[in-house]
User: Fold this.
Amino acid sequence: MIDLTGRVALVTGAASGIGAATAALLAECGARVAGLDLADCAAELALRGDVSIAADVERAVAATEEALGGLDVLVSNAGIFLAGRGDGPSPQLAEDVWQRTLDVNLKSVYLGARFAIPALQRRGGGAIVNVASVAAYRVGSGASDAYTAAKGGVLAITKTLAVAHAPGIRVNAVVPGPIATPMTAVAPDENFGALTDMIPAGRLGRPEDVAAMIAFLASDRASFCTGAAYLVDGGYTAS
Assistant:
C-alpha cells in the first residue's frame, strides 16, 4: 500500500470518474483530501467551484490549507469533452466550444499550479499530477481539435513546471487511454466505444486504473520521477 499519511491533497474534478476514484484512493492511502468540482463530491473537504476561474481555484487552495492544515499534492484532473455541441475538426468546431474546452482542460492546469505551488512551497515541497489524454498522441482517437490541443498543452506545461520548480516540487502527467467514465460516455460509439477492439488489454480502462498511477506519483515512491508522462492505456498507443 502506498503511504500518504500526513499528506493533504486537492483533487479537481473530484465528483465523478477519475477524480472521484483518485480522491477515494488517496484517502485510503492516508491522505486528507479536498475535492473541487461544480458538483458535490465525497471528499473530506468538498469544495464547489469552476476550475477555469482564477478566484475559484485560489479560494479552493486557501480553503484546503485552512481546513486541512496545508497542501502537499495537487491533482489537476478536471476535464470536459463537449461532444454534440459543434465539437469536431476545424473549421466545423464552434468557437465557444473551443474556448470552453481549452479553459477547463488546459487553463485549469495553469491556474492550479499558479495557486498551489506557493502552498506546496510552504510545506517544503510536494507533488503535482496533471491528467492529460492519449488524444494528445494519437490522431483518430475521436477527440476534437480543441481537446487534443488542450491535452497536448497539459503535457507541455507539465515539463516546464517540473523544470522550473525542481527539486522541491515534482510535476508529472498521467495519460489515460479510453477509460469508462461519465465524461467519455457522451462520445459517439464510433469515436470511443469501438476503440475497445484496438486496446491490447482487451477492455476499457477503469477510473481506478488511473487513480493507482496518480497515487504512486503523489507518493515518495516516485521521488525520482518528474517532468514525465505516464501512459495508462492498456497498450492502446502501442497498437
